[in-house]
Design brief:
Blueprint (H helix, E strand, L loop, with lengths): L28 E6 L3 H5 L1 H8 L7 E6 L4 H6 L6 E7 L2 E7 L2 E6 L4 H9 L5 E4 L20 H8 L7 H15 L5 E4 L6 H16 L1 H10 L5 E4 L7 H11 L7 E3 L4 E5 L15 E3 L3 H24 L5 H5 L2 H15 L11 H13 L7 H5 L2 H18 L5 H13 L17 H11 L3 H9 L2 H4 L7 H17 L1 H10 L1
Parallel strand pairs: 1-2, 1-6, 2-5, 3-9, 6-7, 10-11
Antiparallel strand pairs: 3-4, 8-10
The protein binds D-mannonic acid (CS2).
Length: 492
């Protein structure tokens, strides 16, 4: 077994591998991060690593709310890990040092609350995925019947959920006269700052009406748009990167060259100068968010369901099929673009061209199955908001509805060859039951799934233009299979 990447082995890494240009021992903790997955480590942790040389106050304590995997990998490495940036031109490796410590919340609940309540902590960032907000995806309101919410309201001092941890930490700060931290969500939710604020305010109100008012009046929750494609790390990645380092890194992260972070500048307790690392600070994130969620993530989910059903393993494999490229270009140009309000100075044609190239990046093995996860939480902001805008203008939803139909076909849990699909979704069991009862009839299946209010709301199921288009596309998928359906679509 070769040595491990850590503070001691850092100096002996081969030349050409960039490493922290600051003294890690001099760092303080200014940020507590919840949800220390690959995305955080390839995005916010990198922007922060870039500015720690100028300002060592913003080191990160990062927590996993569930699994100990990241702790087990990074603790023996003093929090260090490799960032691999891959494209057709090759791979660049860099060691990131901004994470000072990893905490596994269920094992060290009090430690995490302590870190969050510490006066030095001025920002709590989050990447807990869409489902981590315990909200109703269709309305954005706190789901008060969510088992974690019910638990956390009963046991305030030992929370499980992100809202539970944040509200308890804010309660402790308030009691101790420490100003609240800024809550910075970095998940792909619609109006993510406003959504998290609403969820936290309601949660706090249920704890104590005064605390609810305090959160409403005093806690700043800027919205953000985050973008970087970060597929799950594979064993081949680990092996290749270990070889290049000459020491073992148990959990490197692999990503693309592109990165973007747009943030509303509302940080009453201060913030790192992330703009020095390329982040953009703006007054209103919404136009950027719509552009990104609808063009990138809407296309991604469409590619994931149709690509998976067509037998393609990765996004790049799917995009090697010209019919899919035409479908996605059509989706973006014809159906999404007319719904967007342009961010100032944006060049949309260049943005869309870059997206196609990013999806085609053959060096990234981004599995369609990975993106297909949690569709119930993703569909509303990725496809259905666009659908609503289109319907309001009386415009076509031919491709958007194909994406929704492919999701329906996918959550039946049986692929086109009759093999099981490992559907990962907080609603998977309910969706599967509905599908089993409906059987392989497009009408029955679509009808049963439209009734899932948390996804489709009260309006869409009543609109025959929507239900008709989705049902017709679902029938096509059953008759022809996804690959032929996409090929025919592209030929039209
Ligand atoms: C993807 C996103 O897994 C998914 O659902 O669509 O993680 C996507 O890669 C990022 O949002 C890109 O910024």
């Amino acid at each position: 077994m070769p040595d491990r990447l850590n503070d001691d082995s850092l100096a002996d890494l081969p030349e050409g591998i960039r490493r922290p240009a600051y003294d890690r021992r001099a760092l303080k903790t200014g940020i507590v991060h919840l949800g220390v997955g690959a995305f955080h480590r390839a995005h916010q942790a990198v922007y922060t690593d870039d500015v720690l040389g100028q300002d060592p106050r913003w080191g990160i304590v990062a927590a996993s709310l569930r699994s100990p995997d990241t702790y087990d990998a990074l603790q023996p490495q003093d929090g260090l890990y490799t960032l691999s940036v891959r494209s057709q031109d090759g791979e660049a490796l860099r060691i990131i040092g901004s994470i000072r410590r990893v905490i596994v919340a269920p094992r060290a609940t009090e430690d995490l609350l302590d870190a969050m309540a510490d006066p030095q902590t001025r920002i709590v960032t989050l990447t807990v995925t869409e489902k981590g907000y315990c909200h109703d995806p269709a309305t954005g309101a706190l789901n008060e019947a969510h088992p974690d919410v019910v638990h956390d309201l009963a046991y305030l001092k030992t929370p499980r959920s992100a809202p539970g941890f944040i509200v308890e930490a804010l309660r402790r700060r308030r009691r101790a006269g420490i100003p609240p931290f800024t809550v910075l969500t970095c998940d792909n939710l619609p109006s993510n700052g406003r959504t998290v604020k609403r969820v936290l305010t309601r949660f706090a109100e249920l704890v104590d009406p005064d605390l609810g008012r305090f959160v409403a009046d005093q806690v700043s929750c800027p919205s953000t748009m985050v973008d970087r494609i970060v597929p799950a790390t594979s064993d081949q990645d680990r092996e290749r990167i270990g070889q290049a380092l000459g020491v073992e890194d148990a959990w490197p992260v692999v990503t693309e060259p592109f990165t973007q972070w747009v943030i509303e500048d509302r940080f009453p307790q201060g913030r790192p100068a992330w703009e020095m690392a390329g982040a953009e600070f703006v007054a209103d994130v919404e136009p950027y968010e719509h552009m990104k969620l609808r063009l990138l993530n809407g296309s991604h989910s469409t590619l994931a369901y149709l690509g998976y059903l067509s037998g393609y393993e990765t996004v790049a494999d799917t995009m090697a099929d010209p019919a899919f490229v035409r479908l996605i270009e059509g989706l973006m140009d014809e159906e999404v673009t007319p719904t967007l309000h342009m961010p100032p100075g944006a060049d949309l044609s260049a943005y869309k061209r870059a997206l196609i190239a990013r999806f085609k990046n053959p060096a990234l093995k981004h599995r369609t199955w990975q993106i297909a996860m949690d569709g119930s939480q993703k569909l509303p902001q990725r496809l259905l908001g666009t659908v609503r805008d289109r319907l309001q203008g009386g415009a076509s939803i031919a491709r958007l509805s194909l994406g929704v139909a492919a999701w329906m076909r996918y959550v039946t849990g049986i692929d086109e060859k009759g093999a099981p699909i490992d559907v990962r979704d907080p609603m998977a069991t309910r969706l599967r039951e509905l599908a089993d009862r409906a059987g392989p009839s497009a009408d029955a299946l679509a009808g049963a799934l439209f009734a899932v209010r948390e996804i489709f709301g009260d309006d869409l199921p009543k609109d025959p233009r929507f239900t008709g288009a989705v049902t017709a596309n679902l029938a096509r998928l059953y008759e022809r299979g996804a690959k032929r359906a996409v090929a025919e679509f592209a030929a039209e």
